[in-house]
Amino acid sequence: MAFVSGALVMSANSEFDFTAAVMGGIEREQLLLGFGFSEDVFGLSLPSSPEPTPPPSLQPGSATPLEEPASARASATIQLEELFSLSPLSSPDPPPPPSPCLHPTTPAKDSSTLQLPPLPSKKQLHLQRIKALSRTNHAKSREKARTATYAAHKIRSKIEERYVKPATAIQTDVAMNGRTFAERVASTAFVAIDDRKRSQKVYNLEDLVGDESKHKFRYVAWDGTPAPLSDSNNLAMGVLAGQPNAQEWQQLMRQAAEELEKHRGHCFIPKKIRERGGRHRRGKFIALQCGISHGGGQPHPKVMEQVPANAKVLGELNRHEAFIRIAGFASSIMATWAPDLYSHYCDYLGRLHAHDPKLQRPFPSSVFTATTYNFGPQTACFPHYDFNNLPFGWCSITALGNFDPRKGGHLVLWDLHLVIEFPPGMTILIPSAILAHSNVRIQAGETRYSVVHYTAGALFRWVENGFQKSDVYLQSLTEEQLHEVQAENAKRWEYGLSLFRKLAPSTTL
């Protein structure tokens, strides 16, 4: 680049790639936009500060015929270096010259014979604009997620009047505040005690109910009418929620089952599980988890990592309307039947989300942070506890598929001695960390799937500890503070039970 007789001309250089330089300038312009610059990359306009006056040695009168006028050269250099930190576009950076000139030039050639490379195509420029817009939208989404209220379902009074007050509870003779359940809760009451010694067996209906059965459990014929599960103190420890009053619900549930069947063959199964014939702690069926996890030695909460095949499957399922509706319904049920417990979730998980907005749960409409899809095709769980969940928290289970709920697929609550009909499309919420639960085997030729929503108890512990691991948090405390924390831990289980709804005795049977 040179000034000859006051005119700007370009010098030819075989090593110069004009298109690459322009595209590089575009990328740098977008980078600068993120820092508040608004200069046009093609105009190379100066920043708002005034242009410095060139020194006398660089005044136009001292320029040789083959040199640029110093003021223009300094101006162009300031523009390039201040805006992009680039060397002149006409040539690669040369070694520093001994002369006072900022950049050596080559003899100017007739600009009429200069052949410039073509400008970027419309498609290339369009792609650049799309990328810039995408980055802007992502930034807006992150800010919206950071400031949004966490899963705030509004509890409408007419829902309370229509479903909660007239409901008849399923009464049991167990006490949630009794010794049996207290012994299953860890000392801090953030998680339950690990119990992997239960039977890995799928039971038939006749094994559990009837005069000839070994267990003689109580049979509950359920048609989907909402009904809370009551302990001996009339605490609503869970709820048979049923389904929304929506005409399209059954069609959506059929679509959900079809999606799970369609994607089952595309799931990646770890080698250890394949070697066991597909058997894992909860049963013998394909299951994929997604969402936010913590515990088990993790240094901090994180979104569960997935292999590419499973990431694709989970992404498609999480975007499907049927599963979005299931997640929202499950969350609204907790808000309706256990509003204090729901508020507890929103408080702790809202703080977690505000602290680290990257921790995105699978469904923004849900208060739960994790989801498991059980792909069947004949999903029937072994008796088990979900001991990593919050002990007084709820887990939502939605049954899907094509099976006769009077003959199989029942929900078995071992501690309550209940066998409950569980029709396809229905949802039940229970404290799965402390209630052992399983399913009755379905008949040959039938299909059963399920989708489960839950939250790890360790996430609540992480928030309580000031977003740090327990050992780090406890080491930072004084002896007096440590005693206070221990006292709070001892009361947490009792506090959690106080979050359950107290039912009127007349609403139980």
Automatic annotation (TrEMBL):
<feature type="region of interest" description="Disordered">
    <location>
        <begin position="86"/>
        <end position="121"/>
    </location>
</feature>
<feature type="compositionally biased region" description="Pro residues">
    <location>
        <begin position="49"/>
        <end position="58"/>
    </location>
</feature>
<feature type="region of interest" description="Disordered">
    <location>
        <begin position="45"/>
        <end position="74"/>
    </location>
</feature>
<protein>
    <submittedName>
        <fullName>Uncharacterized protein</fullName>
    </submittedName>
</protein>
<feature type="compositionally biased region" description="Pro residues">
    <location>
        <begin position="91"/>
        <end position="101"/>
    </location>
</feature>
<feature type="compositionally biased region" description="Low complexity">
    <location>
        <begin position="102"/>
        <end position="116"/>
    </location>
</feature>
